[in-house]
Amino acid sequence: MQTETHTRTPVPWTPLRGADIEMVEVGPYWDAVRAPATVGERALELLGRRAGAVIADYSLMYWLVHPQDADYWPRLDGVQVLTPDSGETTYVGVPPVSHTSGPRLHWRLPVGPRRYFTNGELLYEALARAIMAEEAAVR
What we know:
By secondary structure, the protein is of the alpha+beta class.
């Protein structure tokens, strides 16, 4: 499987329709929030229909959020906000629209007409609650 690396100018951004994974620069179209899949699955349950597009890759999940929507989040254990403000260019591997099952890189919730971004405040709350539930389960 080939991987492409480039940025695009059309808005809004949409994933490729072929078979190739696309490396998309964080920032021009969306920022991403990365979390462990165990936390991510709990967060998806809490978000329900309010969840936007989510990419899964083995043990990680990535939510697409509006650029700068998660820039000032307080720290969450195991969660990383990927933005262009880190001083270096960051890319996220994006599967083609046809990849909707895993475990390798796939759309856990694919981009669609009513599913694109997840609201940053709602996502933060869902991830925080999911982390607390995970920690309680370990005790």
